[in-house]
Amino acid sequence: MRENRLRTLWKSGGAAVNGWLAIPNSFSAETMAHQGWDSLTIDLQHGMVDYQAMVPMLQAISTTDTVPVVRVPWLEPGILMKTLDAGAYGVICPMVNTREDAQKLIAYTHYAPRGTRSFGPVRATLYGGADYAEHANDTIVTFAMIETAKALDNLDDILSVEGLDAIYIGPSDLSLALGCRPVFDDVDPKAAEAIDHILARAKAHGVVAGIHNGTTDGALARIAKGFQFVTVSSDARLMAAGAQQVIAKMRANKAPASTGGY
Questions:
Q1: Are 84 and 109 in contact (CB under 8 A)?
Q2: Residue 46 annotated as catalytic
Q3: What is the value of pTM for the model shown?
Q4: How far apart are CA 210 and CA 144, in angstroms?
Q5: Catalytic residue among 46, 110, 135, 197
Q6: What domains sit in the chain, N to C, each tagged with a CATH number?
Q7: Range list of H helices, the chain
């Protein structure tokens, strides 16, 4: 089966730089994949992407060594299984709040006897290899999102679930749940304390910690703290930021209109 480079990177103690795909288009996904990201996450929870758009985006990412990850809309077995069948090598599940939620997530993403995932890896075998079924349970990476006060209360119970590879912090939702401003990087003190606590408990349980970031400086600071999966911006945000830089420079340096004749 094809190597999951996230697992290899983490095993060596490294941190994965993850990009985010919000534009439902295979060409933009392919362009992003060719820039050297360790992984790219297709976002089915927020934004414009649906399942039919996701499949060609996964195919586009497959033209590179970038690891294809998908954030599913919810903890629902059908979409989790179809996403893996389409060839995702990692899934991020939002709003995992209890040990039972985490147990369901592991069950839905693993074949028996470890879980209850139904067999039908129609595209996954094309991407992963003919021996996909034999090795999928130990190759696919499963993330539980920790982003609510309830998840914080149940943190150790969630982290202790066997088969959970990683957690992923959504700083904005976590901040809102704690009565703070919904931001990525410069979070309020209460949210910052919660993020540090989640990271420490994840390390204690041997679970990889990931987090969403708004800037490269924020992501680098979190890698220095011990996060091993950091998302920096998205295709849509990067496109907008690049366009803004061009327009700002052009407007600032635009020659004044001529007021004379010849």
A1: yes
A2: yes
A3: 0.95
A4: 10
A5: 46
A6: 5-253 (3.20.20.60)
A7: 5-11, 26-33, 51-61, 77-85, 99-108, 124-128, 132-139, 149-153, 155-159, 171-177, 189-205, 216-225, 235-253
Count the Cβ atoms, other than its own, within 10 Å of residue 88.
28
Q: What is the pLDDT of residues 146-163, one digit of tens each?
A: 999 999 999 999 999 999
Say yes or no to pLDDT of 113 above 90: yes
CA angle (135, 141, 144) in 5-degree steps: 145
Record the tokens describing residue 188, joined without a space.
Answer: 């309020």
pLDDT classification of 262: cutoffs 50, 70, 90? low
Question: What is the predicted pLDDT for the residue at 137?
Answer: 98
Percent of the chain with pLDDT strictly greater than 90: 96
H/E segment holding residue 180: none
**Distance (Å, rounded) from C-alpha 15 to C-alpha 18?**
9
Distance of alpha carbon 1 from alpha carbon 230, whole angstroms: 26
Q: Residue 150 is encoded by which pair of tokens? A: 């309830």
Say if CB 190 and CB 166 are below 8 A apart. Answer: no
| pLDDT score, position 255 | 61
